[in-house]
Structure formats: C-alpha cells, structure tokens
Amino acid sequence: MNTPPSTTGRAPRRRRSANRIHPAVYAALGAMVFLSVFPLYWMFVVATTDSATAYNLPPRILPGDNFFYLAGLVFDIVPFVQALLNSIAVATAIGVGQALLCALAGFAFAKLDFPGRNTLFLIVVLTMTVPAQLFVIPQYLIMSRLNWVDTLQAVIVPGLVTAFGIFWMRQHISSVINEELMHAARVDGATTWQIFWRIAFPLVRPAAFVLGLFGFVNAWNDFLWPFIVLKSPERYTVQIAIKALQNNRDIDLGLAMSGSFLATLPLLVLFVFVGRRLVQGIMEGAFKG
C-alpha cells in the first residue's frame, strides 16, 4: 500500500520563506536611516571644523578636532548653560501639562455628558486648521496685559493644552474605556475625578506619555514664540541662544552648528532612554484606536 509523501518538512520551509524580508526592503530602510541621520552627522562635522567646510566640494566626511574650542566659544558668547536650564524647565512643564490637562479634557469630551459637548469639541478640532502664526499677536497682547512679557510663564502657559492633544486623548479614551466600566465605578461610589485619576488615566498612560514627549520636543525646538516674548539673555531658551550666536550680517556656521549640536544632544540622550517606550505607546494607540 503506497503512502503519500510526507509534507511535514515543507511547511516550515514555506513558512520561513514567507517570513523572509526582501533585500529591497532592507535597502529602502537603510536609505531612509541614512537620510535621517546624515543631517545630524553633517552638523557635527561642521561643528568640529569651520564655516568653510560647509562649502567644500567634494564635502568633508570626517569630523575635525575643533569642536571643544567652538563649544567653549558658545558658552563664552551667550549664557548657554542658563538657556539649557530654561529650556528644560519650559519643555518639562509643557510636556507634563499636556499629558495631564489634555487627558483630562479628552476624558470630559469622551465620557461626560454636558450641554454643547459636540459643538465645543468641533470648535477645538477646527482650531487645528488655523496657522499658529495667527495666534501670535493675540497671545502677546494677553501676556502684556498679564505683565508676563519676558518671563518663562509666558512661554509655558500657552503650550500647556493643545487642540491636537485633546483630540488624541479623546479618541484614545473613547476606544479604551467602555461605559460598563464607568457605570461599575459609579455604582461603587467613585466620583468623576476618582474615575479619571484611578481608572481612566492609568489605562491611557502610554498615550499620555507619548503626547507629553511630543510636547517636550516641540517646546524644546520652538523658536518663534520665545523669540518674540523673551527679551533678557538670562531668560533665553536654547533656540534663542543659538540665534544670539549669529551677527546681523555674518554667520559663523561652525559656531552656529556647535550650538545647534549642543542643543540637540539632550534630545538624543532623552530618546536613548525613552525611545522604546515611545514606540510602544504609539503602537498601542494605533492598535487600540
């Protein structure tokens, strides 16, 4: 009696071939990584040489030995240490504020029933279509009335809540927290604040962490609003300090790139420690959304 040939050895081979990534995918990913990393590397190369390096043809590839000299000039010309501390304070306050306040507003829009909820949420979403530059004059007038011009709170307070952050947290809370959980908590005697702080916020903490990190990075890189509202050198953020390195006519690219690299270095260190958690938060929000 003839037995059919065994196919047990073929299935794993087919499975392995199906899971194998095509070399073209690796080539595309490598090209994307190169295009993303090369500007940072080129900034470091110029920061270790001089301005002429940026105009050399063919361009210089290897770094020089001039970085510590230019970095010393950066700290001598502007109060760069104080600017770093100011940026850390501003970016941290904005990141934490967006994570908490946007989550609270998103919870209200997602799970609380109050008059005008949908209309107010529509207004919040529509504000995302307005260019940020149009808010500069009204914001400055408000800061002037409050006597907050040339203070760090003038930079912090307008960034504590964003329309995108409210939208992000509202969508995430709607998909994660169901009405049965809310009803069970109310039956147990929990108040609205207790439901948010003890039930809702722990469940959406990864999304709030991602939002807070995005807020931190945006506040760290922000130039326009701090440049308008901050006047004193001791209150400069790092982006304004880098601008102060440049003269009105001449731009020393080596000096400017040294300051830019020093300003970027804290963000690189931050992403080394929280990069994996950032990806997990984004992926969790994508799958749950």
List the helices and strands and how they pair.
Elements: H1 10-19, H2 23-47, H3 67-77, H4 80-111, H5 117-126, H6 136-145, H7 153-156, H8 163-176, H9 179-187, H10 192-203, H11 205-221, H12 224-229, H13 238-244, H14 253-288
Helix pairs in contact: 2-14, 3-14, 4-8, 4-11, 4-13, 11-14, 13-14
Descriptive notes:
The protein is mainly alpha-helical and 289 residues long. Helices cover 70% and strands 0% of the residues. The mean pLDDT is 85.
Output the structural class: mainly alpha
Instruction: Supply the CATH architecture of the largest domain.
Output: Orthogonal Bundle
State the shape: globular
Quick one: biggest sheet?
none
Runs in which pLDDT lies below 50 for 5 or more consecutive residues are none
Strand content bin: under 5%
Membrane topology: Multi-pass membrane protein
Organism: Plantactinospora sonchi
Protein name: Carbohydrate ABC transporter permease
Main location: membrane
Produce a short descriptive summary.
The chain has 14 helices and no strands. With 289 residues, it is mainly α.
